[in-house]
Amino acid sequence: MLDTQDAVLEALRANDGQPYGRPRTVTAEELVAAAEQFDDTSLLIAALLDLMEAYEYDGEQRKSPVVFARILQLWDKDPEEFGEWATRQVFWRFKWVAAALLSVPDVPLAAVRRWHTEMRDRYRAAGHALQPYYAQRFHLAAHLGEDRPEDFELWAGRGRTSFSDCPACEIRAQAIHHAHGGDDARALEVWQPVFDGHRTCAEEPYTSHAHALLPLLRQGRTEEAVSSHLVGYRFARGKSSTAEQIGLHLEFCALSGNEARGLEILAENRDLFDGHGDPLARLEFLVGVELLTAGLADRGHRELDVSGPPGRNWTVGTLLAHVRSEASELADRFDARNGTDAVGARRRRRLAQRPLLAEPLALGVRAAAVQAAAPVAPADRPPVEPLPEDLRGLVLRARALRTTGHPDSDVLWHRVGELIGAEGYVHTEDPEIGSLDCLLAEVALQRAFDATEQDDLELARDEITRARARFEAAGQPDQELAVRARLLVLGLEQDGWAADWTALDAVLAESEELRAADPEAPAEGHLTVLQCHALAVHRELTSALPDPAPELTRRFDAVMARYRRESAAHGNSRRVATSHQYVADAHARQGLTDSAETELRTAKDLIEEAELPWLAPRVLVQLAQLGFLRGEPGDGVPLLHRALSEAARWGETSFPYGPTYALLGHACKHLGDTGGAIRALSEAAARFDRAEDGTEAAQVRLQLAEALRESGRLPDAVAVLESVLLASDVADLDERLRAQVRLDLARGLFTLGEHRAAAEEYLGLADAVAGWEDQDTHTMVAGEATVALAEAGLWEAAGTALERTLASHRTAPRTEQVLAVLREFARLTVAAQGQDGLPAALERLAEAERVREQAGQDGEELPFWQLDAALHYERARVNAMADQGEPALAAAELAIAAYQEGGAEGASARAEAVRLAALIEGRTLGRTDAARARLADGIQRCEQAGLAEEASELAAVRDRLAESS
């Protein structure tokens, strides 16, 4: 009930602690109405200021001027009712109103200028300097497209005042000025103090990250652009006041090849379509949506379902038409109000932009792939040689390239399929290219290869079956046998596959009969049958490792030897090299790395001698993998770089890009090249996304997050982990993988100081693992949740979590961690409650003693001297924090003695206990001489133990005590 002034005041305080958004704004409106029932001007002022702040940070700036008009009336009538803080807010918020008026096209330009004059006159009358006024004048000129160097200097060249925007926000405004003027390098230079963390505020560096995205891309600073996107978007996501920033992130996605990420951002922020409180920010958002959807429409995705304004379903095409109409109308309204075309021109310039990179920029975060507009063959690349114009030339070249394994064969067979499948096609018999049945069989085989590459084994089986029937009708028994063999090994990578040796041997026997009847006939079909045998026996042998039966090993050796021998006899270097690769892989899996390398080097030499460079990438990857098996992964870095480069050069669509980039990431990390690891792992994650392999993508992102943490980019790491859990298919991940992602995320959030968010993740994870057989995981997670909740000030929940931790510990002990949780809980209790919290803190430490004693009785093998010392140290610390000097010193003495029991291992911690004891003696108890003597002894011990840093810290305490005595 808000029926008393105290109740309203308490409600204002409570609302001030709520996050900005619609619920806080509605409450603020209710509190203004409640305050109006009392004859209490100061209470009404507080309520109005709170409401204005809610509007400002809820994307409802257009409502601010009306509220501020009431505040000014109260100011003019009774200024003594405004305290120091409220008085400052009156003058500070002139700027908010100026920005709000500018952002609404219905407000006449003359009214905006009058407000500037009002601001100037009020500042002068109050004795305030005018730099903030000139800032507003500059922002108006920039909006109108009439900003001149002198306007900028009138603002930026003046000294800052107590009413200037914070340094970080002013830096942002100045950097944006340079970027809009085309000087990206200068803009980024100006921004650097914000990005370095030297200038920050509640909105910075996050808002600057959004504005700097394209300048960073245009300057080629792609890694920084990725980081700015991850950190900036994470701040802006889901906030009603960040429409402009969301629009900039959408623009970045559209221009960096990350349309799929853009669509996910759109889905996460679709409520912004309902926001009309800041029309200028809305326009920036709409233009971002327009740019994203226009690019998708141009690429043939007009019918793709997307998120748009709530209330109906949208496709790319319909949403583009909707936002284009509204954005155009809104820009025209601004230009009509302003009497210039600056707003419309800026929109047109943004829409005219084209992607800034040749390839999609790997962001590291999860994004569902944008599917093709319609089922089509894999994207073709321009071949090395021009496509033959006639069917005969196409077929002959396609066959020749397929024999050598050249990637361009795919392009040619797709074209052959188009020609013979065209309406009205009439086949002309040609002995060189064969019958129509033969061509249809070869095209069906290509479709089978395409389907296999897309893991559509059912379609591949249908196409191979179709090819077999066509070859049979065409009277080509060798090819019919080849596709029968292919059918028998289809899906051999799937779990549960087993070779049908009876059928495979029967096919081989028929092929041998054909060869015997006509030894001069082309051997490609027969060699394909032998390759299928080689594939099958390789699969059986590797599945049987580490202990394959001797007869299986003999069969493997015999099949490989025959495949190699007959391939060499027919001059097929590609197949000979392939046989060496099969053997190398089998040997490597058995730890025979030397022989595996010999096989691979032979394969590599054969490929180079035969001038078949498109076959090299896989051999190079295998050689790199041998380095990992030998414990020398760094040796593989140049090999993997070359493999990826060659695969891209030859348009190898079936090459395992995702696994190879992941391997490169591990190798770079081993060499200490964290930046290289981050780039490679980001690309690996993107490749797995495109392949729709969510499990591999999530595993790579775990590794990417670790690399980001190690490089000091923890906010980026948190964004990467969040993207995994926000994905729509997260439930499909293995529960333990999902749990690991969540645990790493919770720990990252905790380290960032986002304790409430961390606690939510910990509690959700604790519920998820509560049913696991290995309950020690539950104990660990519940303990970490306890500390996070306490850090967040959620003490009731923290207490519940602590009881949960202790209960789980009794079932699945984690003594060292539980003791650490109890000690930290005690410290946080006193830190939050002061002396009032000391009894509860000491009870927690007593609980820790009981846990330690139980561990001893249970015979756990633990460093008890260390655990006892840490407990004494924490008791000393909480007593000292509560100004209880004597018990604090006594506990510190016990800690010193316990650490001394640990010998050299406890020496560093002993020095810290000495430091604490000296501070208690010297400051809390006033025994400076005793403290200095204690420190002298501690310094000597540290020097003798070679602990220079610890000795220096104790000397610093000694010097400070000497200065204060």
Q: Structural class from helices and strands?
A: mainly alpha
Mean pLDDT: 93
Radius of gyration: 36 Å
Strand order of the largest sheet: 1-2
Helix content: over 70%
DSSP helix count? 46
Overview of the structural elements:
This is Tetratricopeptide repeat protein. InterPro entries: TPR-like_helical_dom_sf. The chain has 965 residues and is mostly helical. It folds into 8 domains: 1-92; 102-154, no CATH class; 165-230, no CATH class; 237-357, no CATH class; 384-475, no CATH class; 477-571, no CATH class; 734-846, Tetratricopeptide repeat domain (Serine Threonine Protein Phosphatase 5, Tetratricopeptide repeat, Alpha Horseshoe); 863-965, Serine Threonine Protein Phosphatase 5, Tetratricopeptide repeat (Alpha Horseshoe). Strands 1-2 form a two-stranded antiparallel ribbon.
Short description:
This is Tetratricopeptide repeat protein. By secondary structure, this protein is an all-alpha fold. The protein contains 46 helices and two strands.
Which terms would index this structure?
single chain; 965 residues; mainly alpha; two-stranded antiparallel sheet; 46 helices; 2 strands; 72% helix; 0% strand
Write the layout of secondary structure elements.
Layout: H1 5-16, H2 22-35, H3 41-56, H4 64-77, H5 84-92, H6 94-102, H7 109-126, H8 131-144, H9 149-156, H10 167-180, H11 184-195, H12 206-211, H13 213-218, H14 222-236, H15 243-255, H16 259-268, H17 279-298, E1 305-306, E2 314-315, H18 316-338, H19 342-351, H20 391-404, H21 408-420, H22 436-453, H23 457-473, H24 477-489, H25 501-517, H26 524-544, H27 550-569, H28 573-589, H29 593-609, H30 616-629, H31 637-649, H32 657-670, H33 674-690, H34 694-710, H35 714-726, H36 735-751, H37 755-769, H38 776-791, H39 795-811, H40 815-833, H41 838-857, H42 864-881, H43 885-901, H44 907-924, H45 928-945, H46 948-964
Antiparallel strand pairs: 1-2
Helix pairs in contact: 1-2, 1-3, 2-3, 3-4, 6-7, 6-8, 8-9, 10-11, 14-15, 14-35, 15-16, 15-17, 16-17, 17-18, 18-19, 20-21, 21-22, 22-23, 23-24, 24-25, 24-26, 25-26, 26-27, 26-28, 27-28, 28-29, 28-30, 29-30, 30-31, 31-32, 32-33, 33-34, 34-35, 34-36, 35-36, 36-37, 37-38, 38-39, 38-40, 39-40, ...
